[in-house]
Amino acid sequence: MLLIHNGTVLPMTFPLSVIPNGAVLIDDKLIVAIGSAKEIERKYADQITKRIDATGRFILPGNICAHTHFYGAFARGMAIPGAPAKNFVEVLKKLWWKLDRALDDDGVKYSALVSMVDAIKNGTTTLIDHHASPNVIKGSLNAIADAATQTGLRTALCYEVTDRNGLADAQQGIAENVACAERVHGRTGLAAAMGVHASFTVSDKTLRTCVAEAERLSIPLHIHVAEDAADQAHCLKKHGMRVVQRLDALGALNKRSMLAHCIHIDDAEMQLIAKRGAKVMHQPRSNMNNGVGVAPIERMLKADITVGLGNDGFSNDAFAEMKACDMLHKLNAGDPRAMGADKIVGMVYSHNRTIAQMFWPDLKIGALEAGARADVILMDYTPFTPLTAGNLPWHMLFGMSGGMVTHTISAGVVLMADRKLLFLDEAAIAVEAEQSAKRAWKRVADMAA
Ligand SMILES: [Zn+2]
Question: Which of 85, 225, 286, 293 has a CB 3.0–4.6 Å from the CB of 259, allowing a cystine?
Answer without folding.
Answer: 225
